[in-house]
Write a structure and sequence with these properties.
Strand content of chain B: under 5%
Strand content of chain A: under 5%
Distance between the termini of chain B: 42 Å
Number of helices of chain B: 2
Number of strands of chain A: 0
Oligomer: heterodimer
Number of helices of chain A: 42
Structural class of chain B: little secondary structure
Shape of chain B: elongated
């Protein structure tokens, strides 16, 4: 009875459980050990014959009352917790009594507590397979809780518990599976330990067998709760680590968050992770779709990882480490190490993760922001890590909305003139380095130059953020950029950035742009002349300059080939080798010049025909390149020509057929380039596809139509081949073609350049078609595009509604084919109900932007729409009903159509009589009646 | 003033209660077979290992720039030309959904 009331009290709250544990233990001792003193109180006299067996039975009886308590009731969990606490306390006490002096633990003595535990486990084990899910849940919970609370249980029982729990990890209820994996996580851990220090082979296999099963569950269990519980309860070991880290991409956001916010901080020093893991974890976490995962990752990076580096730099003294829960003071060397540990030379490039990681770092570490300084000596010797600190600090401050933070960058960064000198010095070091690498004499030169190239790129990024209102500084930067651009050795990425800086220091107005073009074209001429000039005047040095040029273009294989052929050539081979060398050099020169031109054109907006310098460049550099026999030159030439077309509608009109031809005849790389160029041209000059004015001479072959007869505008003859190109590209087997086509179509439809229903139909199919599973880029682009397109304008929505029924019909066919294939192939495609749901959602007229303000009483309730226009759902309803009644409509299709119909929202209130909407509704009602009669 | 809220009687276990038939049934009715309380075997394996597909971080920015001139915003040369009003789609949040599977 007293046991009973203790349990009653224990279920109410956790705070008093400690006390209750002690009083229950008192009872326990009284029942199991000979009473030291005769009972004092009268009440106990009645319980004198209450022995250990009775005690155990009474505990068991109470426990049974817990088993049917629903999962949602906190009293259940509290009771279980109480039992665990009691067993732990009791076994500690018992062990102390049994072996007051001994510190050996290898023998498990039988004690009252262990007998009670065994009694409970035996009571519960059969209940693991109860029909009632609550009983299974509670039984599993209690057993797992006991396993996790106690140090040891009886060997025989251990095997039974293990088997029982292993069955429950396949339970139908995810809540039961959660409890089962919680218990087994501990057993797997034990098994692992025994691998190390036990010679019992049975235990060894049992432990690792459990682990294997649990890792399988971690990957495959359909419930995120199960995976998450397991993630938090598996032991850290080299064997489990890859499985644990893989959950960084789990489809459940809470699981990903748990990994970043709980598991990884607890994992220990991040430097034990491989470089690949570090980079992936950062990249996945910082770019996660869930904001909380991103935040947890940022915190991990700027508080845990930096701390690992900082702590190891602290002096080995007492009290040097910060108190628990606090972070070490800013340490510049630790920050450099952190950047080195994430391989900043590779992760710090454009679109690499290091930049984002450092933005999050500066954001959350104002102490480092304060502490950092960039005094003069800093700029003398730059490493990839140190300059990256400066660049990211500068970027963070300049983009900050806080003026205090902004002024911090101005205070700590050198002023423009000084910075230009620093940049000039490092550019010179880089150019020398490139020349040294070309000579292949200094083995360290290559590594040094890679670092220096990275450093110069970062400096140029800083240069892009500076304020050039100071004329002296502006001029210094201008001349520095101009000089370096004329260096053939300047690497490509630097070239691109130098041109951007150059555009910045020229005036933003048209005159500034003209100056900018002039300067860049001069530099192109210089690069061209340096090399060609060397060749004709100083023959002995030609070899040297050719090689340095080639290394700059990062084609070492070619450079080596030339060198080999030169050195191995005999007297009579000399001439041929020189010819070959000259040809290779010409290609290099051309590639370099085209690259400069391309970068320049990306920063120009003027009308091409108004700029004679650009026209000259087009005719003398770009056009010959497009006609070149060499594929790389031709491709770069086409890109430049495309960029020129963006600056001139006439040029674009003249060349569209050329680009169409490139797509039709080219390999996939050329096709991708052609799609990009054509799409950009159409976006920039949408009027190229405008209908021709009546009577215009179409010039292209359409002899059937005599221009003189028609007074209507004629469809533009370019439309057909262009639509054909996109249709082909969308079904291309090459992702490099399919992906830009999808993006381009999204743009062209959103900007209403395209209105063609057939291509829209293809886009809907591509979204659902299992064939595009391998192209997540396409899927994600369309996930964004389709709803945005439909919900941005009512007319777009009507366009989609018109193709919906046709698309559904095709998809029904696709699915039926999959089902014929069997072997779960239909899992590759979403169900037709999902398809119908998407179609209904996209075409929902209530979702169109501005719907509620369009006289719809602001409620978003379809019944209140009284506009006279036919909306997308009405249109769709008509189409669905027509198709349902059609003879070719199969059973599956009819089912899908009716699912769709059920999701459509038609107005309850009558639209104005005689309006198109009223007529449409009338037809819908009529065909519904017809369909019903047909069925009856 | 809000409506008077009824305090929900907190559930408590009556440990003193005798074994009822209902409790006994719940406790001692075993599952008719292992399969009725187990996860169907078809759900033991997940084709995707429950992992997300590669995120491509598609968002409105990608629709607003040209392929050839990624830094220049579309239509910056002739503001307003061609698009005839984007209908505000560009303001919509950056989506990162995986594909049709996410719609279900």
């Amino acid at each position: 009875a007293r046991i009973c009331s203790i349990f009653s009290d224990a279920q109410r709250n956790v705070a008093t459980q400690r006390k209750l544990v002690i009083s229950l233990r008192k009872l326990h001792e009284e029942c199991c050990y000979e009473p030291v003193n005769p009972p004092k109180s009268k009440g106990r006299a009645t319980e004198e014959d209450f022995g250990e067996t009775e005690f155990n039975e009474e505990i068991g009886r109470c426990l049974l009352r817990v088993l049917t308590v629903k999962k949602s009731e906190p009293v259940g969990d509290r009771s279980v917790r109480f039992l665990g606490q009691f067993l732990k306390h009791a076994s500690e006490k018992d062990n102390a009594i049994a072996q007051p002096d001994a510190d050996t633990t290898d023998a498990f003595p039988e004690t009252p507590a262990s007998r009670l535990t065994s009694y409970i486990l035996n009571l519960l084990l059969p209940l693991l397979v109860a029909k009632d899910k609550t009983v299974r849940f509670r039984a599993t919970q209690i057993i797992s809780h006991i396993v996790n609370t106690l140090d040891s249980i009886d060997d025989e029982l251990f095997q039974l518990v293990r088997l029982g729990l292993l069955k429950r990890i396949r339970d139908k209820e995810s809540a039961v599976r959660v409890q089962a994996v919680l218990g087994l996580g501990r057993l797997a851990d034990d098994g692992d330990n025994e691998n190390d220090n036990s010679d019992d082979s049975d235990d060894e296999s049992s432990g690792s067998g459990i682990l294997e099963k649990l890792l399988d569950i971690l990957q495959n269990d359909p419930s995120a709760d199960v995976r998450r519980s397991l993630l938090m309860n598996l032991p850290f070991a080299p064997a489990t680590l890859p499985y644990l880290l893989e959950r960084a991409r789990d489809c459940d956001a809470a699981t990903r968050r748990a990994l970043y916010s709980r598991l990884l901080p607890a994992l220990g020093d991040f430097r034990h992770l491989s470089l690949t893991h570090r980079e992936k974890l950062l990249r996945w976490g910082l770019r996660d779709r869930d904001e909380n995962v991103r935040k947890a990752t940022a915190r991990l990076f700027r508080e845990r990882w930096i701390e690992d580096c900082a702590i190891s730099r602290l002096p080995d003294e007492e009290g040097a480490a910060p108190p628990p829960g606090q972070l070490s003071a800013p340490n510049y060397d630790a920050l450099l190490e952190l950047l080195e540990r994430i391989d900043v030379v590779n992760s710090g490039v454009e679109s690499g993760i290091a930049f984002e990681a450092m933005q999050a770092f500066w954001e959350g570490r104002p102490d480092y922001r304060e502490d950092i300084s960039f005094e003069d000596p800093f700029w003398d010797e730059l490493t990839a890590e140190s300059i990256f600190v400066a660049r990211t600090f500068n970027a963070f401050c300049r983009h900050s909305g806080d003026s205090m933070v902004q002024s911090m960058a101005e205070d700590k960064m050198p002023e423009v003139t000084k910075f230009a000198f620093i940049l000039q010095r490092h550019l010179n070091v880089l150019i020398e380095g490139v020349q040294k690498v070309a000579l292949e004499q200094d083995p360290d030169a290559e590594e040094d130059t890679v670092q220096q190239e990275f450093a110069v790129e970062q400096l140029l990024h800083i240069a892009l953020t500076l304020d050039y209102s100071d004329e002296i500084g502006r001029r210094k930067m201008f001349s520095t950029m101009r000089e370096s651009l004329a260096m053939p050795e300047l690497p490509e990425e630097c070239t691109k950035l130098v041109i951007e800086v150059l555009r910045m220091v020229c005036d933003p107005n048209p005159a500034g742009e003209r100056e900018f073009c002039g300067i860049v074209l001069e530099a192109i001429a210089e690069v061209h002349d340096t090399i060609i000039g060397d060749d004709s005047s100083v023959k002995d040095e030609s070899f040297h300059s050719a090689r340095s040029e080639m290394s700059d273009e990062s084609t070492p294989t070619k450079a080596k080939k030339v060198k080999k052929s030169k050195s191995s050539s005999s007297e009579d081979g000399e001439e041929g080798a020189q010819d070959e060398e000259k040809a290779v050099r010409e290609i290099m020169v051309n590639m370099k010049c085209l690259h400069i031109a391309q970068c320049m054109l990306q920063n120009v907006q003027c009308d091409l025909e108004q700029n004679s310098d650009l026209v000259t460049m087009l005719n003398n550099l770009v056009v010959p390149a497009v006609r070149s026999q060499e594929a790389p030159i031709r491709e770069r030439g086409l890109l430049c020509l495309g960029l020129c077309c963006l600056l001139s509608k006439n040029l674009a009109a003249e060349n569209l057929t050329l680009f169409l031809h490139c797509f039709a005849k080219g390999h996939e790389a050329l096709q991708a380039i052609a799609i990009q160029i054509i799409s950009d041209i159409l976006i920039t000059h949408p009027s190229l596809l405008a209908p021709l004015p009546p009577g215009a001479d179409t010039t292209t072959a359409s002899p059937t139509k005599s221009p003189s007869k028609s007074n209507d505008p004629q469809a533009n003859p370019l439309l057909k081949p262009i639509y054909k190109l996109y249709t082909r590209a969308l079904s291309s087997p090459h992702l490099s073609v399919q992906t830009p086509a999808t993006t381009a179509l999204s743009k062209l439809y959103l900007s209403s350049v395209f209105k063609d229903p057939a291509l829209l139909h293809s886009l809907v199919l591509a979204f659902f078609n299992p064939d595009t599973r391998a192209n997540p880029h396409l899927r994600q682009a369309l996930t964004y595009f389709l709803p945005v397109y439909c919900h941005s304008r009512a007319e777009n929505q009507l366009r989609l509604a018109r193709v919906a029924v046709g698309a559904l019909r095709v998809l029904v066919g696709v699915r039926e084919e999959l089902e014929v294939d069997g072997e779960g192939a239909e899992e590759d495609m979403v169900g037709l109900a999902v398809v119908a749901g998407c179609l209904a959602e996209w075409t929902d007229p209530r979702r169109v932007v501005g719907f509620s303000s369009d006289g719809a009483a602001g409620s978003g309730d379809a019944s209140k729409v009284v506009s006279g226009d036919v909306n997308a759902h009405m249109l769709l309803a008509e189409d669905v009903l027509e198709r349902v009644g059609a003879s070719g409509c199969g059973k599956e299709e009819r089912k899908a159509l009716l699912t769709l119909l059920a999701k459509l929202a038609l107005p309850n209130a009558a639209p104005p009589a005689g309006s198109p909407a009223a007529e449409a509704l009338g037809r819908i009602v009529a065909s519904t009646e017809e369909a019903l009669e047909g069925k009856a | 003033a809000g409506p008077k809220r009824k305090e929900k009687e907190p559930f408590e276990i009556d440990f003193a209660a005798p074994m009822s038939q209902a409790l006994a049934d719940a406790l001692y009715t075993p599952a008719s077979s292992n399969s009725t309380v187990s996860l169907p075997k078809s759900q033991w394996k997940s084709k995707t290992r429950n992992l997300l597909p590669d995120d491509k971080h598609f968002n409105s920015r990608q629709l607003l720039r040209l392929f050839l001139k990624p830094k220049a915003r579309m239509g910056s040369r002739r503001p307003g030309a061609g698009s005839g009003g984007s209908g505000g789609w560009a303001q919509q949040g950056a989506g990162g959904a995986a594909g049709p599977e996410d719609q279900g």
